[in-house]
Amino acid sequence: MYPNLYYAFRDLLGLEIPVFKILQTFGFFVAMAFLAGAYILTRELKRYEQQGLLKGIPEKVVVGLPATQGEIIGNAVVGFIIGYKILGIFFQWDTASPDLQSFVFSSQGSLIAGILVAAAMAGYKYYSKKKQALSKPVEQTVMVMPHHRVPDIIVMAAIAGLLGAKIFHNLENWNDFVQDPIGALLSFSGLTFYGGLIVAAIVIISYARKKQFNIRALIDSAAPALMLAYAIGRMGCHFSGDGDWGIYNSAYTIDTNTGHTVKMAPANFTDAVQKNVGFFHQQAGLVQQQQVIVENIPHAAFEKPAALGFMPDWLFAYGYPHNVIKEGVQIAGCDGPYCKVLPIAVYPTPLYEIIVCLALFFVLWGIRKKIKIPGVIFGIYLVLNGVERFFIEKIRVDTRYDIFGFHPTQAEIISTLLVIGGIILIVIYRKNNTATNKLS
């Protein structure tokens, strides 16, 4: 696993670039997910604009105004943060490099660098606007097309999505949140996709209504982008080892000397647990009278079929060595902050979602021009996304609720509602389209 890009470049290319320790692997892939989503969304919005389903609206802008106090102060604040924290990392490298995340969220930094960068950015904003200022500002009317608003949509999606993902995750893991609320809120791990999707959708649709979007065309445009962004985001989960993995595969164990996956008879699962009793004592809900109750440990044995012998074992069971959350047991001979590996292999569910969601993206991309009824593509996306997530939950570790004798996870509940909602959308939009054609 690669907690940050320093480890990726070191292991893959043999290059040691200490400054890359700043770039977290999970954050890198999340950024790539947003960029990929923005690209696909822009392409689709332009396509719907050409079809006349999406139209621009005129907006008045004033050209030639000097910089406002708000703009200058905003630039100064951003500059201070960059100087205080980012440059502070370089100026205090020996202190910051062992644990960059803790440094970023601490009060430590470079005050001088913060002040200097704040002054530079505030000054730049002031003088750049002054050069463009006119003696008499001019009011102009410009046509703003939907695809011009993609940067605004992406920023809103990022902020609302992060908040929603954090809120839903902490609701799902309330006991952990209560024990360490600050750590839970500031941690780079612990994000619930559906929480982010729901909150971001509410915010973006509200924004789109104000800007007079055709909502059905917008959500159709977003469907392939959402599927691709999800697949890329899961790459961040997998390659960083953020804890978003599946239940234990009791047909495999882990060689803690190398971190490699090793086959194990399922009957030996209990022995493997007892061998690593110290690790399992730390897992919530698995301790009772100082004994690990093996039955309480979610696991299922699945050995690689002989017909798939050409595939690597880690595709079926993985230990996530050097994971970013530092969970597991010590890897022999490893010295550094990320030297843990899971003692028993788990199902690499993020990897499965990467593969499946990339395939589903290409399905949506392939049918998007063939389906002419607005809104149906998004309905299909909801069904595909819901089905994929519902079944992956069967081998994932998540909090389960007790509802009328059933024990679903939060994701299973939401994914089921998404499938139902998607089917309803498809039926309604197809029915309305048929009725419209008959009237015409």
Order of helices and strands: HHEHHHHEHHHHHEEHHEEEEHHH
Distance between the termini: 59 Å
Side by side, the strands of the main sheet go: 1-2
Q: List segments where confidence is low: pLDDT < 50 over at least 5 consecutive residues.
A: 285-289
Helix content: 55-70%
> What would the principal axes of the Cα set say about the shape?
globular
Beta-strand percent range: 5-15%
Rounded to the nearest angstrom, the radius of gyration is 25 Å
- The counted number of beta strands is 8
Structure explained in plain terms:
By secondary structure, this protein is mainly alpha-helical. Helix content is 56%, strand content 7%. It has helices at 5-13, 25-50, 69-91, 93-96, 100-104, 111-132, 150-172, 174-179, 181-186, 193-210, 215-240, 269-275, 277-281, 349-367, 376-392, 410-439; strands spanning 57-63, 138-144, 252-255, 260-263, 287-288, 291-292, 329-330, 340-341. The strands form four sheets. A two-stranded antiparallel sheet has the order 1-2. A hairpin with a 2-residue loop joins strand 5 (287-288) and strand 6 (291-292).
